[in-house]
Design a protein that fits this description.
The protein has 20 helices and nine strands. It is α/β, with parallel strands linked by helices. β7, α8 and β8 form a beta-alpha-beta unit. α1 runs antiparallel to α20, α3 packs antiparallel against α12 and α18 packs across α19.
Length: 668
């Protein structure tokens, strides 16, 4: 029997701890600003009040994110499987997303909780400066498709200036801490749409995979799930349209067998059979005041167990992770003032070796300042290695794009190729951008940590004053920005596909199509005449063969024309990407490396000034009277006591959150 899961600290308790910590640090900042030892240096880079104020701001920001944060669910499904209907059913708005379009989504749609129903389109224009935030435009809910969908005729987005769409709804499921994400092309796992869905999963808390009871999992679905194994910690399967397919239990059984063979990581994932029709009827019955009928239809729909799991296992777990981040930031903010006060107490107790310790630390800092310092070499080589890795990954991604696109060109019928190819190629390019962004963020974070470690013996000199378990976070430079690595300008990097024309009408066109087949048709008629000794039958056979061969010739010519158009479009897009993106990668990494170097220079200068101030304070304490020292020791011990109490409370909260950090053992 599985033991019960330990209870995690409540959000109220963690946020109350964060608020009390922030209040205490604010009071300490005011005290530091008013102290005679620091008043002359107030506003300097090493001003203790500035350092404490930065910690308070980070803590309050993290607490606000935890209070408003939601678990991100990426909903995925082949086209016509019921994915959009399932999203509508989960939020209880039957007509929110269009349910009758194939691969309709052209941009990200995020559905989250809000006090009032509203939708906002975030727009971009080619005139915006790189890194500028998109402009916002409120739109009616019924116009979401106009801003977020692609034109079914051309495969291009209706609006090229839309970056993404956000929808807010006052829905209890969303209020529990969930948000649903519909990404470009997630309505079908074909070509570039699968790549885009996989890239989106890197920032998701869970994958909701929608199938139906009509047939077993397809090869493309199994391939997607196998590749999604390392992208998400939680997968939930939804089997829609149970009211249309009576044999759905056998389909679920067969799907589980296929998962065991092709994507074993998902074998233990829960399955939820649902009926979107019953859920829609339940909403209608509730709106009509038929509460008993609404309850029966809701139970029949199968959505209650699904919503319960999403709340209990995914929303709760994501909330615990965000609360753990709050505690982490609070402990980091407490560590520096606690170390400062403990050093002050040592000075007030007139420890004889303290001055020598401070002087040794100053000497270590001086070694970090020359241009030849090890951390500068680590920054230079690390940024160069990161640029090379991103460039290589980008080139490999383009090779993958070409491989998938060329397979599409070689195997598609002319009509389908002309209609679908531009949208699929655009989805692949969007996936490359998102993958590049994810890789850059990870690489820059690693680079920041690598360089910080080179300075850790100096910048984290107060580690002994940190938590008893040795988990005190080091100096956090946090220069990795939120902006994307590149800016996707659709009109430049994604030009429209040019469709060539071939005029085969008129007498010359007819002769051009007919003459190459006349000989074959005449030969065929002659053979028929010899075999049948008939006069009329060879003429009929020759005419029929001429018509068939002429039609086939036209079809081959049309196929060649469309494939040529698609190949030229592919080459043009890849050429634009190969020209523009590598330079953007270099500029982005170089810019952040410069910021990281400046941040470290400031951190080293700040630490040097702090050490100078400590040494000056220690010398003043050596000259102070016994009464002054006793009063100062009493004040410092009270401050240490308050900080230590909060630190110990934070460590206990961190331990409680870590104990509940694994998946819920109850696999429904």
């Amino acid at each position: 029997m599985t033991p019960p899961r330990p209870e995690a600290p409540s959000r109220t308790r963690v946020l109350d701890f964060a608020a009390r910590t922030a209040d205490l640090l604010e009071r300490a900042a005011r005290t530091a600003a008013e102290a005679p030892a620091t008043r002359s240096a107030a506003g300097s880079p090493a001003d203790p009040s500035d350092t404490l104020g930065d910690g308070v701001r980070r803590l309050r920001d993290e607490a606000a994110r935890a209070a408003d944060g939601a678990a991100t669910l990426v909903v995925v499904g082949e086209k016509k499987r019921g994915k959009s209907s399932t999203i509508n059913s989960l939020v209880g708005v039957p007509d929110l997303l269009p349910v009758d379009a194939d691969v309709a989504t052209g941009v990200h749609i995020v559905v989250r909780h809000g006090e009032h129903p509203r939708a906002v389109a975030h727009l971009r224009s080619d005139g915006d400066a790189p890194g500028a935030r998109p402009r916002s435009e409120a739109i009616p809910l019924e116009r979401i498709a106009e801003y977020a969908a692609v034109d079914p005729r051309t495969g291009r987005p209706h609006r090229l200036d839309v970056h993404h769409v956000e929808v807010e709804l006052p829905v209890p499921l969303l209020a529990s801490g969930l948000e649903l994400v519909d990404t470009p092309g997630v309505g079908g796992l074909v070509g570039g749409h699968a790549q885009l869905a996989l890239a989106a999963l890197e920032n998701a808390d869970a994958l909701v995979f929608v199938v139906d009871g009509s047939s077993e999992l397809t090869r493309s679905e199994l391939d997607f799930l196998a590749r999604a194994t390392e992208r998400t910690a939680e997968t939930v399967f939804v089997l829609a349209k149970t009211d249309s397919y009576d044999a759905w239990p056998a389909v679920v059984e067969r799907n589980q067998e296929l998962l065991a063979l092709h994507a074993p990581r998902h074998t233990a994932a829960p399955w939820f059979p649902v009926s979107n029709r019953a859920r829609r009827d339940a909403v209608a019955a509730a709106d009509a005041g038929e509460l008993q009928e609404a309850a029966e239809l809701l139970a029949e729909s199968g959505f209650e167990p699904l919503e319960s799991l999403l709340r209990r296992r995914i929303a709760a777990r994501a909330a615990e992770l965000r609360l753990a981040n709050v505690v982490h930031v609070a402990l980091a903010a407490l560590a520096a003032p606690l170390a400062e006060q403990e050093l002050r107490l040592r000075s007030l107790q007139q420890e004889p070796g303290l001055a020598a310790e401070v002087e040794r630390a100053e000497e270590a800092l001086r070694l970090l300042q020359p241009d030849s310092a090890q951390w500068r070499r680590a920054l230079t080589t690390g940024s160069r290695d990161l640029k090379n890795a991103l460039q290589l990954g980008f080139r490999r991604s383009l090779n993958d794009v070409r491989k998938v696109a060329e397979e599409k060109i070689a195997t598609s019928e002319p009509a389908a190729l002309a209609e679908e190819f531009p949208a699929e190629l655009e989805a692949q390019v969007e996936a490359v951008w998102l993958q590049l962004d994810n890789a850059a963020r990870r690489g820059l974070a690693v680079l920041e940590e690598r360089v910080r470690r080179e300075c850790s013996t100096v910048l984290d000199g107060g580690a002994d004053a940190g938590p008893a378990d040795g988990s005190r976070p080091g100096t956090e430079l946090a220069v990795v920005e939120d902006g994307a690595v590149i800016r996707a300008e659709r009109d430049t990097l994604l030009p429209e596909m040019v469709h060539s024309t071939h005029r085969d009408g008129g007498p010359l066109g007819m002769l051009e199509n007919v003459i190459p087949t006349v000989g074959t048709a005449a030969t065929f008629g002659t053979v028929i005449g010899l075999l049948t000794s008939s006069v009329l039958l060879p003429a009929v056979a020759s005419y029929a063969m001429l018509a068939v061969l002429t039609r086939r010739r036209r079809q081959r010519a049309e196929l060649g024309r469309v494939r040529g158009d698609a190949t030229r479009h592919l080459n043009r897009v890849l050429t634009e990407l190969s020209t523009e993106i590598p330079a953007q990668i270099t500029d982005h990494v170089d810019g952040l490396a410069d910021r990281l170097g400046l941040a470290l220079d400031r951190a080293i200068a700040d630490e040097r000034l702090r050490l100078e101030r400590r040494l000056a304070e220690h010398r003043r304490n050596l000259a102070a009277s016994a009464a002054e020292l006793a009063a100062a020791r009493d004040r410092t011990r009270r401050r240490i006591g308050a900080l230590t109490t909060l630190r110990d409370e934070g460590l206990a909260l961190a331990h409680g959150l870590a104990a509940t950090g694994g998946p819920d053992p109850d696999r429904s």
